[in-house]
Amino acid sequence: MKYIAAIDIGSQTIKAAVAKITGRDKSLQILAIHEMETDGIRRGTIIDINETANSISGILETLSSLADIRIKEAFIGVSDSQINLRQSEGMIIISRADSEVTEEDIKRAYQAAETSNISQNKEIIHTIAKDFSVDDEMSIKNPIGMRGLKLKINALVVEGLLSSLKNVKRVVELAGVNSSGLIFSPLAGARAVLNRKQKELGVILLDIGATTSSLLVYKDGEVIHGRVLDIGSVNITNDIAINLKIQTEMAEKIKIEYGACLPHLVSKKEIIDFEGLGINDLKMSRKSLAVIINKRLKEFSKILTKELSKIDKNFKVPGGIIITGGGAKLPQIETFFKKELKLSAQIGFPDKVEGFIDKANNSAYASLIGLLLCGLDDLGNENGGFSRKFFRSSGEKSRGFWGQLFKNFLP
């Protein structure tokens, strides 16, 4: 029986899961999920090696106990604010005497794209081929076997700060687990909640984390933009804590139990039951709480709108916006973004797995479940294959996973 494990290093919390592959259709059954907040991470960046390694080690120990297996390796999700997505091109002279494009030419084209405008302090996490050109023939998806003089690749490069990624690899090593590969968490989230039709139409995936949020935009089946934003649900929690002069732990509980994003939909008569929460000297209407939340979300919406404006002023998104992450738990969040962005909006649920339904089908675990699905893709394509050549990962150990991802990105 084959097992898959994943560790998602978030902006404040580390989540991990282990699953087994069942049935002839090779579906995933979640055996255990565990998470832990850690002081070793700030905005997704590791600031304390030992603290983070100890947290991961503790999480894995709990998972191993719950699943009754020893976890030796895992896919690692990363999404710190230093990760950047950029367009890149690479062009090479086709090597064969008969001018036929080969796999070796594809590799050389990748290398050309990866070395173009790369900074010494950056490391490439993924390189995703959008299309190829052979001489004057453009928008080619599969150039192998074609003939010409020059091969050009248009690619999307996902890169992170070299020191940050080295720290991720180090803490995983110290925690006693081998890395099956680093994966940009929003790509894993997309694997869990988006379908091909949404990607073709054009869709925005917004994962609202604790201190950061990630944005991924698809059009015509391709990733055309991505960014990690320095704002998250903790900003709202802090606003509530400051206004009510209470601890952030209590503010978070109040946000989830009584929060709302649209004040005009909440009655002034609805009073928060602070006594039921163990607080006797406070009084506030739910509408007043919604005003605090709405003010911060308005700022969030402006940041998001500004980021989306970088794509194309005439960019249309028929697929709307899909919201995941812990911030998606906030009541009325989808209604808020529907109103502000004038797009259809819904919460994204990773419903492609079995077991631990309360967590596995929770939007907060979209990236984590996506990492497991990426692992399933990998095991399902152990022999590699043509499509793998169009999705590369720096220092990758796994084989078929990158090809499967390519299939998900391109029509």
Break the fold down into its secondary structure elements and pairings.
Elements: E1 3-9, E2 13-22, E3 27-37, E4 41-42, E5 45-46, H1 49-67, E6 73-78, E7 84-93, H2 103-115, E8 122-134, E9 137-140, E10 150-161, H3 162-174, E11 178-184, H4 185-193, H5 196-201, E12 203-208, E13 213-219, E14 222-229, H6 233-244, H7 248-258, H8 286-308, E15 321-324, H9 333-341, E16 345-347, H10 357-360, H11 366-379, E17 391-393, H12 400-409
Helix pairs in contact: 1-3, 4-11, 6-7, 6-8, 8-9, 11-12
Folded structure, characterized:
The chain has helices at 49-67, 103-115, 162-174, 185-193, 196-201, 233-244, 248-258, 286-308, 333-341, 357-360, 366-379, 400-409, and strands at 3-9, 13-22, 27-37, 41-42, 45-46, 73-78, 84-93, 122-134, 137-140, 150-161, 178-184, 203-208, 213-219, 222-229, 321-324, 345-347, 391-393. It is an alpha+beta fold. The chain has a domain at 84-161: Dna Ligase, domain 1. The strands form four sheets. A five-stranded mixed sheet has the order 3-2-1-6-11, sandwiched between helices. Strands 7, 8, 9, 10 and 17 form a five-stranded antiparallel sheet that branches. Strand 15, helix 9 and strand 16 (345-347) form a beta-alpha-beta unit. The chain starts with a strand and ends with a helix. The model is unreliable at 382-390 and 395-411 (pLDDT under 50).
